[in-house]
Amino acid sequence: MSLLDDLTSQIKKRQGQRYRLVRLDPENVSRKKLEGYEFLRKEDPEIKGTILEQHQIADGQIRVGNLAFARIPEIAARAKEKKNEERLKRHLEAIRHNYQQAGESIKRELGPSHAAFKPIVEEKEE
Prior knowledge:
By secondary structure, the protein is α+β, with helices and mostly antiparallel strands.
């Protein structure tokens, strides 16, 4: 187990919350805040009485190197996962559609001799 795993296990996790370490570059921090993450501070009940209190900086935020501990409500985390799954499905459907169009284009170019043409990707019903 690494040091970060040991520190993460110190958090007194609350029901309905998910926790993670967030990289502290400005763009990433802004994105995480927009997604609904809140950064843990020394006064938060998840941190009180743990070794993590030693990892606070001047503003009270809990940091380890270039990482900070953050939490997000379970509902927001599920919504984010659903959004990512839908985006992935749309992306895969676009790829499948492009392969089908390319296959049809090849068949048209081959003319009557296209019977020997086998598509690269087989159709699968989900």
